[in-house]
What we know:
With about 450 residues, the chain is mainly α.
Amino acid sequence: MRDVLGRLTLERALQAAIVATILSAVLAAGSILSWLEAARAARWVALAALAALALAYAARRRALPPATAVSLAACAFVAVAIVSAGWSAVPGSTAGRALALAVLFAAAGALAWGTAGRPEAVRPLLYAVLAAVAIVAVGGLVVLAVDNDRAVQAATTELAARYQGLGGGPNTATMVLALGLPLAALALVEARRRTARIGLAGLLALLAGSIVASGSRGALLAGFGGLLAFALAAPATARGRVLWGAAVVAAFVVGVLVSRIPKPESGRAATSAADAIPDRMPFSAAPGYVDANLVWRLQDDVGHPPPGVAETTRKPRTLLGSSGRAEAWRGAFELGGQRPLLGFGFGTEQRVFADRYVGFNSAVPENSYLGLFLQTGAAGLALFLALVAALLARAGRALAGLRGEQRLVAAAGGGVLVAGLVLGLFQSYLYAVGNNATAALWICAFLLAASTARERVRV
């Protein structure tokens, strides 16, 4: 009895640590400015607590986890990230970021080993992730009610107004919400009481609606991609997969159509960069010269009209447009080609990449795979893809023989992994531990390995 009570107490503490880790990471890049500093410190404290509790939880098995394709690929990738400090221009930063990733992987791996072959133990931890996602979604509504200007990004002549809720931008908190869609679907399917089903259906609608209102195309594709993966994996029959999949596709189409309703503000677009320059500056160029960075900024080097030619064409944000990402991705790939094998060093993405693109506004290329190529070269990217392939292959093999609740849990974990991988095409975050969605993704990904393990067998 004492062992049972101890395990239950530890599991409750783990659930609380998971919620704290995810929520503090969201607030650290959130819309409530007065909370930013405290949240940025709290996210590391929460991660350390999660790692300590997870290791204590795994130690209860009284056995070391076996070496598997998943664990070996994860260790190899982290090793390359740490070793890259040897050729990084900022070795201290590289080592620190790599060690932070190692702590996150250790925490997620310990959770997987502690719950291996026990879907009844995996489910509460997945629901802890869902609880954090629900808090973020509801918190966004609270911010909307209290301070509309913080919850909504104002419309411009090119962009419609976009909902950002608790996030610091329309693409921030929606990352976590996208990962939460498959988990909300799992909870809805497993709910037995009518009131619970109504509440969970409302939560699912809130997550999807928040993503649609944000206009974040990456989150929209990722969230419904993960939801579709769950719909195709959860039912044991072909008929069920067809029906569930069709429902998700229909919901996605509706979401896309609704997202196109808001329109940009009408009005005259700025005709040149000079329009944005104040009349009075604290400094001035010498006679006969101009300050080139004010007239032709480095950030606007690529895609800017020639000197003396005004920009007269409006460039509204379209559904299939790249928002300047295509040019940035091309530039990042060419930059990575300077060190194609080992990259510039883990964690140097923001230092190496330079935003020179008039249609792009970010310090990173907003693509996790290109970001990895920049930081760790082809070697690191290959090891990362090997980790992803090992997780997906394990899930694919196991789902063929799983039934009932274990199949649902595994399908939800797989849905989160698919959503996270799709999101990586639009956000540089898969390796950035401080990002608001990184911990949520890897916790669910490693729990996917646990949910597909046989009773007390390899993880």
